């Protein structure tokens, strides 16, 4: 066995036992006095739904305000990352005629994947799934319930959109560690601003050319699940279409020091969306900073004929020869890729293809020019 594997096994053993000890202390000392189910929005088709969630100590993190201080922002972010996860408890999911009971893993995560032999009864695109905690953990515990929302394509859907977040929607400096940590821990959903024109462009894509807001958005990022509520609030504050948000766990695992690489995580999540939303064509949006073009190329190879367009925000001054090679290879598969500096460029192209109306371009251009 290599030194790396021995070190990983030792660290994982220590981490697991420390976590178990802290959980026991937290429950016995009543430091953990309130439990919550945190469901993450999911997606599905006419006969199946999928989503993940987590069971944690409720730390009472509220939405932010524009006037919140840097210290207040830091305290909220500290609470998000210093989570107290609850492993080994059962969660029951109930949706229409289906039920599924699952057990949380060592980090408190659970996943629900319900399949039906008959089509679901749908009255709209967003469906509600009831969740119930089956275990009694703290003294005087009341029912621990949650409701999750799952998107199922309903009517007038022209295409789906899958978008990265970091340096695609919002400048984060993901390629520069200090800048990324500073913007993550000291800002909030109001002070973090998206690239100009992004909100307008994404709203136009959601409505499509028929003007009906029915085209679904899916967000895939390598940010940790700890940031889920922060990112969902960010989308709402800046009027960017909401949708399922696929993040990742950054904790130590049995196999890796960090649970999954950026490439592996993003490719796996994007392809999960393609597998479940099997009747939808997609527009993919990313940036040139963290391998999005390479990941999207692999998606095109694995799902031929399913990708309409790839937009890549150009945030790097180098590496264009590699991007040109990827663009050429994509062209061989019949998929165009456009390197853009602003959302206006992408909007003008989408309008020319008939995917969004021409009338949407002017406001997007004004926002981009104001940057």
TrEMBL record:
GO terms for molecular function: phosphatidate phosphatase activity. This is Phosphatidate phosphatase APP1. The lineage of its organism: Bacteria, Pseudomonadati, Bacteroidota, Cytophagia, Cytophagales. Pfam families: APP1_cat. Coiled coil: none annotated. Residues 159-314 form the Phosphatidate phosphatase APP1 catalytic domain. It comes from the Bacteria.
């Amino acid at each position: 066995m290599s030194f790396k594997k021995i070190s990983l096994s030792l660290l994982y053993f220590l981490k697991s036992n420390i976590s178990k000890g802290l959980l026991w202390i937290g429950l016995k000392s009543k430091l953990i006095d309130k439990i919550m189910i945190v469901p993450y929005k999911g997606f599905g088709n006419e006969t199946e739904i999928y989503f993940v969630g987590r069971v944690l100590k409720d730390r009472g993190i509220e939405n932010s305000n524009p006037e919140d201080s840097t210290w207040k922002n830091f305290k909220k972010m500290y609470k998000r990352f210093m989570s107290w996860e609850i492993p080994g408890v059962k969660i029951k999911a109930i949706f229409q005629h289906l039920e599924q009971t699952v057990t949380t893993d060592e980090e408190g995560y659970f996943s629900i994947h319900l399949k039906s032999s008959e089509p679901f009864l749908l009255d709209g695109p967003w469906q509600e799934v009831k969740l119930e905690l089956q275990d009694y953990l703290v003294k005087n515990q009341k029912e621990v319930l949650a409701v999750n929302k799952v998107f199922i394509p309903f009517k007038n859907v022209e295409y789906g959109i899958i978008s990265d977040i970091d340096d695609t929607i919002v400048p984060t400096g993901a390629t520069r560690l200090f800048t990324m940590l500073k913007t993550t821990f000291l800002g909030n959903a109001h002070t973090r601003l998206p690239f100009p024109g992004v909100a307008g462009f994404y709203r136009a894509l959601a409505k499509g050319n028929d003007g009906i807001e029915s085209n679904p958005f899916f967000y895939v990022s390598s940010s940790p699940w700890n940031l889920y509520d922060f990112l969902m609030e960010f989308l709402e504050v800046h009027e960017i279409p909401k949708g399922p948000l696929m993040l990742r766990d950054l904790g130590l695992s049995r196999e890796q020091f960090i649970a999954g690489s950026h490439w592996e995580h993003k490719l796996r999540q994007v392809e999960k969306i393609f597998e479940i939303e099997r009747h939808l064509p997609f527009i993919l949006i990313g940036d040139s900073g963290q391998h999005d073009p390479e990941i999207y190329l692999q998606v095109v190879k694995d799902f031929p004929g399913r990708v309409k367009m790839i937009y890549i925000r150009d945030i790097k001054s180098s590496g264009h020869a590699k991007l040109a090679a990827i663009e050429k290879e994509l062209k061989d598969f019949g998929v165009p890729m456009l390197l853009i500096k602003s959302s206006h460029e992408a909007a003008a192209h989408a309008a020319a293809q008939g995917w969004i109306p021409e009338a949407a371009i002017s406001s997007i251009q004004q926002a981009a020019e104001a940057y």
